[in-house]
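dude i think i finally got it to work??
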Amino acid sequence: YITPTSVANDALCATSPQRLFLIIILNGCAKYQLLYQARHNRVVDVVTSYIPAGVSLVVIKDTCLTPSLFGSDAEAFRTTATRPDITIINQSSREVFLVEIAVPFDAFVDVCYASKFDKYLPLCLEINAFGYACRTLVLIIGSLGNVHRRVVSGLKLAGMCNRSARWLAKYLSVSVMIGSSRVWQKRCSDLQV
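look at this
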């Protein structure tokens, strides 16, 4: 069996063409799109399940947001990016967290972080205009298991204690590596057919 560790070691030792091949297999091959989505959705489900519950806390997963959620009469937002992976709304403190999750190839975690942050900034500004304090939390786990440096602080902002946030970041890393291992195993089994 090919393990996530051996895949990571191969990526570190690979020459440029080999690294490009690995990037395509683990993140960009249309044939494995459903496996990529399953890997991403697993991270979203796990993060959602660990968000601390509260009396006035509303957690919305993978849903297009509308201004009516924030007490506005507007029919729609002006921006088109209105479907973050997780939305946390605290009605009593009027705080909103837009949580966006991505699993890019590890070499591109910083680029992906900036891209996701920029994508939801206009929505965040519109929600701020409705009298809510909105923040965008971007959680990036590389497809080989590397955790972006801001994941733990993002989980803490979402209401987790430091210990839980650090534990969850490690758990998500392993979960992503298992998902990537499944992609790699599928690719290997396709070659044997």
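Residues 1-8 have pLDDT under 50 and may be disordered.
im so relieved honestly
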